[in-house]
Amino acid sequence: MNATEGSNFYIPMSNATGVVRSPHEYPQYYLAEPWVFSLITIYMFFLILIGIPVNLFTLCVTVQHKNLRTPIYYILVNMAMADLLVIVVSFPFAMHAAMHGYFVHGMVGCNFEGFFTVHATQISVWSLVVLAVERAMVSSQPSMDIRFRRRFVIKGIAFSWLMAFSCSLPPLFEWSRYIPEGLQCSCGVDFYTLKPDIFNESYINYMFAVHLVVPLTIIILCFSRLLCVFNNEELDKIERDANCVAVTLTLGFFMYWLPYASIGWHIFTNQGSAFSPFAMTLTSFFAKSSVLFSPLICVCLDKQLRRGMIITLCLGKNPFPDDMGASKTEASSGSSSSVAPA
Ligand SMILES: *C/C=C(C)/C=C\C=C(C)\C=C\C1=C(C)CCCC1(C)C
Ligand SMILES: *[C@@H]1O[C@H](CO)[C@@H](O)[C@H](O)[C@H]1NC(C)=O
Ligand SMILES: *[C@@H]1O[C@H](CO)[C@@H](O)[C@H](O)[C@H]1NC(C)=O
């Protein structure tokens, strides 16, 4: 036996020595030294401390500046909201659990933490899909009506929430379940057992197929379309820059999540094999840092957003006197202008 299983936990360590205890009741200091748990606590604290202002600021700037009311920023707002949701609602659970060395909040806390993490992640996944489709549409048809694009993206955002619910809700209703993982201070879905009574195998297959492979395929198809029109002369600079932001954002997001997804898939397809709880925790907490880097990527790459931020930071005074006029006309020509930046 490579693991110790209980009714609501799965610890990747044999109980031959008799030290293994339920992660809902006892500290797990036999899985890793206490300082590792302290490090995780500090890391979570740092993520919460930096993540809230960075995402909140992105959100405020995007809502405040009229010239940022174009489809790509709708998607950014949706992702920033998802990030804030997970930072405010589930990160404190993980931090508090790491502080105590085990999942102190019981099954209710575990469901709560797992649900919001999966939900927010899924919102980002499907937002990126909508963004990729929108980019491909605009790039192949630059004259497309801005109102049509806006309606498309708003429907897409509603769709991203629906898809997210269809991934995050089932484990709460006995199709799979949320369970502590890695060093047992955060919760994810059950990759570890087949549990026929909750149809776990079918859920994990469904999750990977519908909520990872399908979105990735759509994104790859759309981006290959973007490559074809990369040098299209009809496409203005703003649209090309938006394509760049979209591609970088997507690459960044999956760079954070694919290590975790691969370990999960590996564990699921090799039931009962030995794996390191530390590796699981490392990839899952690495994935959590994606909340911080998506707004940062945008700020680094997106000139308009950065300018909006500087104006907001200067309390509304525009420190760019040379393009003062330009920004005025942009704002006054209204958000329905078809030449509005994307
Ligand atoms: C810190 C807590 C974590 C990482 C909780 C669990 C996350 C999942 C079960 C994520 C699953 C996945 C989603 C939502 C989307 C991308 C693919 C995926 C299967 C890794
Ligand atoms: C591990 O073994 C010890 C000693 O046999 C036992 O007291 C404990 O309950 C076991 N742990 C689990 C989680 O079953
Ligand atoms: C334990 O893990 C090893 C290596 O991963 C594997 O070969 C073995 O079959 C596993 N044992 C059980 C009981 O599954």
TrEMBL record:
UniProt KW keywords: Chromophore, Disulfide bond, G-protein coupled receptor, Glycoprotein, Lipoprotein, Membrane, Metal-binding, Phosphoprotein, Photoreceptor protein, Receptor, Retinal protein, Sensory transduction, Transducer, Transmembrane, Transmembrane helix, Vision, Zinc
Subcellular location(s) per record: Membrane
GO biological process, one term: phototransduction
Modified residues (N6-(retinylidene)lysine): 288
Record site: Plays an important role in the conformation switch to the active conformation: 113
Membrane topology (UniProt): Multi-pass membrane protein
PROSITE patterns per UniProt: G_PROTEIN_RECEP_F1_2
Annotated GO MF terms: G protein-coupled receptor activity; metal ion binding; photoreceptor activity
Family membership noted in the UniProt record: Belongs to the G-protein coupled receptor 1 family. Opsin subfamily.
Protein name in the entry: Rhodopsin
Taxon lineage: Eukaryota, Metazoa, Chordata, Craniata, Vertebrata
